[in-house]
Amino acid sequence: MTRRFGMVRVFATMDGLVVEANGRCHRPAALRGLDAIFTAGDPLGVVTAALHRTPVIDAPHARVLLAPIESQEIWAAGVTYLRSRTARMEEAKDAGGGDFYDRVYDAERPELFFKATPHRVVGPGGQVRIRSDSKWNVPEPELTLAISSAGRIFGFSVGNDMSSRDIEGENPLYLPQAKTYAGSAALGPCLVITDVLPEEDTRIEIEILRGGGTAFAGGTDIGQIKRPLESLAEYLFRDNEFPSGAYLMTGTGIVPPDAFTLDHGDEIRITIEPVGTLCNTVA
């Protein structure tokens, strides 16, 4: 009988997928790619079955890791944390006070926006980018849900929603330019597949290193997200189709002070366990 694990971690590498289950790593030939997982009726069951009689290999952590994405779009939810609402209102104060963000925070319908196609997504160790026409740029560390083509949340990863705060604050209609551009998203270091959503006390931590020191550090927990995670997924899939599934960034509760902006060469480290730490530098 094939053993079903309660949680597995899937790493994307140049040599194919590597699955870590119960502390052991495998490269299951039966898993051709991530699309097969996102389109499965039982993603965890499909991965578990693929591990049957698969030899144990060395851990993938010394390998070059890719973003755990194949054909999936990345979408994002905004103003899901109180801190995010406050920051968005502050950045839009010169455009009329930004009270529309206050209304979004209290509304039944969440803010959802398109973030990135796979070719715009950076993996672990890769270089994220800041816009050449922006002077105020920040990373947004976010729990990122993996949602199957049937609309079911089956796992999660670490996401970085790079944002140009000055462009977004100038006018809310500029949101696509502030959020979507080459190198505007990072994902990894792996995809956690599990039947259980993260607990409310799950921590999200970020540290930004500059010149050998810490330029900014902060943390929060996902219990501070106002909206149920299942509700965010339901709204995303409402009257929409994702044949290869989708990733959904769930918003940020960690916002650097207004005087802070990213600089070229900064190292961004975002940690959510049990996914691990996503490390990227600014190109």
Question: Would you kindly provide a written description of the structure presented here, covering whatever features stand out?
Answer:
Helix content is 18%, strand content 35%. It has 283 residues and is α+β, with helices and mostly antiparallel strands. The chain folds into two domains: 7-66, no CATH class; 73-282, Fumarylacetoacetate hydrolase, domain 2, CATH 3.90.850.10. α3 runs antiparallel to α4 (99-106). The radius of gyration is 18 Å and the shape is globular. The protein starts with 6 loop residues before the first strand and ends with a strand. The model has no long low-confidence stretch (mean pLDDT 92).
**Large-scale geometry:** globular
- Structural class of the helices, strands and pairings? alpha+beta
The CATH class assignment of the largest domain is: Alpha Beta
The oligomeric status of these chains comes to single chain
The tally of structural domains comes to: 2
Mean pLDDT over the residues: 92
- Strand percentage: 35-45%
List low-confidence stretches.
none
CATH superfamily of the largest domain: Fumarylacetoacetase-like, C-terminal domain
- Please tell me the CATH architecture of the largest domain by its name: Alpha-Beta Complex
In the CATH hierarchy, the third-tier topology of the largest domain is known as Fumarylacetoacetate hydrolase, domain 2
| First-last Cα distance | 49 Å
Brief account:
With 283 residues, the protein is an alpha+beta fold. It is 18% helix and 35% strand.
